[in-house]
Amino acid sequence: MSNKKISPATQCIHSGYEPQNGEPLALPIYQSTTYAYSSPTEIGKLFDLTADGHMYSRISNPTVALVEKKIAEMEGGVGALCTNSGQAASFLTVTNIASAGDHILVSAKIYGGTTNLFHVTLKRFGIDCTFFDQELPNEEIEKLIQPNTKLIFGETIANPALSVFDIERIAKVAHKAGIPLIIDNTFATAVLCKPIDFGADIVVYSTSKYMDGHAVQLGGCVVDSGNFDWTQNDKFPGLCTPDESYHGLVYTESFGKLSYLTKMRVQLVRDLGVYPTAQAAFLLDLGLQTLDVRLARHCNNALAVAQYLENSGYAEYVKYPALESDPNNHLAKKYLPKGSSGVVSFCIKGGREKAEKFMNSLSLFVNAVHVATVHSCVLHPASSTHRQLSDEMLVQAGIDAGLIRISVGIEDIEDILGDIKNAMEKTFG
Q1: Residue 226: what pLDDT?
Q2: Per-residue CA distances from 97 to 38, 89, 204 (Å)
Q3: How far is 281 from 381, CA to CA, in rounded Å?
Q4: What is the pLDDT of residue 2?
Q5: How many beta carbons lie within 10 A of that of residue 38, not counting itself?
Q6: Which residues face 366 on adjacent strands?
Q7: Which neighbouring-strand residues pair with 79?
Q8: For position 398, what pLDDT does the model report?
Q9: How far apart are CA 104 and CA 367, in angstroms?
Q10: CA of 92: how far to CAs of 276, 343, 382, 394, 421, in Å?
Q11: In a 10 Å sphere around its CB, with 0-12 CB exposed, 13-18 middle and 19+ buried, how is residue 328 labelled?
Q12: pTM beyond cutoff 0.85
C-alpha cells in the first residue's frame, strides 16, 4: 500500500505499519529498552552504523520507527525522526547544522516558545539569531543573510499571528544563498500543506497539536526532504567531514539523502535523550489515523467562527487566512486550498480588560495553554504564551494587548457559536 500513490486521508490510516498475514491490525507497542542479537559482531555493526537495527530505545524503537515512516510518507520526505516534544524537534533542526559562532535567520511571526528558544537559549550556545519580517521583499531578506548564516526558519501558519509563510518565494532566497529552508508545519500538517512540494528542505512539527489531536501526548517530529545538497559549499562541516565518534565516518558519503537525519539521530538524539517512548508513538498513531477527517471539521468550524467575529462589531480585526478579507488570503489559496486549520485570532474592542471579561464569560471553551485539540480552547497570548517577549517583540510577532487566540474544536458549530455570542453579550452588555 505504501508504495502506491494514495491520498493523504488513506495515508493517515495505512502508511507506516502494514500488518502481514495473521499479524495485529493495530500498531504493536514494542515496550522494550533494549534488543537481543546473536553475537557481539552483530552489535558492533550497529555501533559502526554499517547495519540497520535497533540497539537501544534512546535512539530508536520499532513502534516509533513505524510512526516515523508514516509521517515521512505523508509529508513526501525521505525519512523522519520523532522526538519527545516539538521544542526538542525545533532545537535539533537548528543544532544539527549550526554551532557556536553561527547565525540563523528566523521569521519574527513564530510561536513564542520557539522565539524564546532561539532568542535566549540558543544564544547561550553561541548561536546568533536575527528575526525578520517575512513580508520583506527578497532583496531585503538577502541583506540579512551573513556568511555564517546556516538556515532560514518559518512557520506555515504562524502561531498566533496566523500569517501564511510564502514558502516557495523564501525557499528560493535560501537556496540562492546555499542554505536550507526549515518550515514548522504544525498548524497545517501534511493534510493541508506539504512544504516540501514548495521547496522547503526540512519540516518540523509539534505532534502534540493536530497530529495527536486529543491533548494526551507531547511529541515532535523532523522530516527531511532529501533534496538539499549539503556538499555544495563549506557551510556544513558536521555533515561533510569525518565524525571521530564513529571512526571517521562522513555522513554525506555514507548515507546520502539520509545524512541529515542520520547525524541527528546518532549524534544529538543519542547524547540528549529526547526520543519518545513506544507508548507515546502508539498514541500519536491513533491521532494520525483520524487527522484528515478531524482537520476538515476544524477548518469548517473555524471559518464559521471567523466570519461571525468579522461581522459581529465586537472585533477590531480578525485573523484567519481563509477569510476573503484576510491580507494573507492569496497565500492561503496557494498553500492551504483545503483550509487554514482551526485556529482563529482576533483583537477584541476594549483591549486587555475586555479580553479578560470575554474569556471569563465563555462556558464551552476551555481556558488552556494548548491549541489544535478536539476541544475548543481560548488563550490570551500577551499574558501567557508570549508574556516573555518585550513590547517591541510583541509588535514584531503581530500580537496586540486585546488579541485572543481561539482554537476551534470539532463540537457542533451551533454550540460553538452560541457560546461565543453569549460571552460577547455579557462582555459588552
Answers
A1: 98
A2: 36, 13, 15
A3: 29
A4: 45
A5: 7
A6: 377
A7: 224
A8: 67
A9: 34
A10: 14, 26, 27, 25, 43
A11: buried
A12: yes
Q: For the purposes of burial, counting CB atoms within 10 Å of the CB of 227, is it exposed (0-12), middle (13-18) or buried (19 or more)?
A: middle
DSSP string, 296-338: HHHHHHHHHHHHHHHHHS-EEEEE-TTSTTSTTHHHHHHH-TT
Q: Degrees (nearest 5) of the Cα angle 323, 384, 376?
A: 50
Which grid cell sits at 298?
476544524
Contacts 24+ apart (CB under 8 A), 248-254: 249/49, 254/49
Q: What is the DSSP letter of 238?
A: H
pLDDT in tens, 83-129: 999 999 999 999 999 999 999 999 999 988 899 999 999 999 999 99
What secondary structure letter does DSSP report for 281?
Answer: H
Q: Residue 119: count other Cβ atoms within 10 Å of its Cβ.
A: 17
Residue 34 near residue 57 (C-beta atoms within 8 A): yes
pLDDT < 50 regions, the chain = 2-3
pLDDT tens track for 191-231:
999 999 999 999 999 999 999 999 999 999 999 999 999 99
d(CA 223, CA 225): 7
137: cell is 521583499
